[in-house]
Amino acid sequence: MTPTVLSLNHTATAPLLDELRSAWPFPAQLHRWGSVSAYERLLGSRCPMAVLDVPSTRSTGDLELRVRALSRLAPVSVLVPAGTNTLPLFGANAHNVLDRGLPARELAARLAADRRRLRTAVATAIPDGVHLSPLSPPHRDSQRLLLRMLLSDTGPWCCHELRVLLGNAERPLSRPTLHARVLRLMSYVTAIRAAMHIEVHYGRTTYSTRP
Predict the structure, then answer these.
(1) Please, are residues 159 and 174 in contact by the beta-carbon 8 Å criterion?
(2) What is the maximal distance between C-alpha atoms in the chain?
(3) What gap in Å lies between CA 64 and CA 199, rounded to an integer?
(4) Would you say the pTM of this structure is higher than 0.70?
(5) 3-state percent breakdown (helix, strand, coil) of the chain, nearest 5
(6) Phi first, then psi: what are they for 105, rounded to 5°?
(7) Could you give the dihedral angle defined by the CA atoms of residues 118, 124, 129 and 132, in that order, rounded to the nearest 10 degrees?
(8) 8 Å CB contact between 38 and 6
(9) Which residues does 27 contact at the CB level (< 8 Å), separation at least 6?
(10) How far apart are CA 193 and CA 155, in angstroms?
(11) Are 68 and 92 in contact (CB under 8 A)?
């Protein structure tokens, strides 16, 4: 299991990742928040681990939501600046929260310990019996990813979770765009004899798939 590293500031994370690689074999690739390939990698792993680097918390008022949403794809170790209040992040289902300013050797060792603890975790990949290959899946990478996300967890996905995951570090995907994407997936969900359930609540919409 190789950790998948996502960043809210790619430029600021790159030097940190170089330091970690020099301190410990850390063959992880760096991905920007919202990367389709990063999310696909997490969904396809039998024992995934995500590392979310947050170089600054000054403009990340939605950090708890980002951690909660990402944790639905994989256990998340969050790297934050010293002095950050970590309790809300643990409350958002973070697997661990670490000071990104620790010496590289110590930080790498702590991440390695996280990885060892997760080796026996239950995989969060698509459940057995749900495969996209026979469906002639959507041509767009973003649509294939959304379909996999909806199928990987039969629990309801809040629109805010999906919007923040499918957006970028600066802004979430717009609600109308998300809803349009979900509607375009209806035929694929029906093809595997599942049903898409959309429930509108005050201030949010939830999406779920069920057999």
Answers:
(1) no
(2) 52
(3) 23
(4) yes
(5) 45, 15, 40
(6) -65, -45
(7) -130
(8) yes
(9) 2, 21
(10) 17
(11) yes
Cα–Cα distance between 17 and 15 in angstroms, integer? Answer: 5
- Torsion 189-195-200-205 (CA) sign: negative
- Contact between 4 and 28 under an 8 Å Cβ cutoff? The reply is yes
Comparing CA positions, the residue from 187, 184, 189 lying closest to residue 208 is: 189
The one-digit pLDDT tens for each residue of the chain (211 residues) are 688 999 999 999 999 999 998 887 766 789 999 999 999 999 988 889 999 999 998 767 799 999 999 999 999 999 999 999 999 999 999 999 999 999 999 999 999 899 888 876 544 444 443 445 445 556 678 898 999 899 887 789 999 999 999 999 999 999 999 999 999 998 888 888 788 899 998 889 999 988 7
Q: CA-to-CA distance for 204 and 161, rounded, in angstroms?
A: 10
Residue 122 is encoded by which pair of tokens?
């239950």
Q: Cβ atoms within 10 A of the Cβ of 30, count?
A: 18
Specify whether the CB–CB gap between 50 and 77 falls below 8 A. Answer: yes
Contacts of 43 (CB under 8 A, 6+ apart): 73, 124, 125, 126, 145, 148, 149, 152
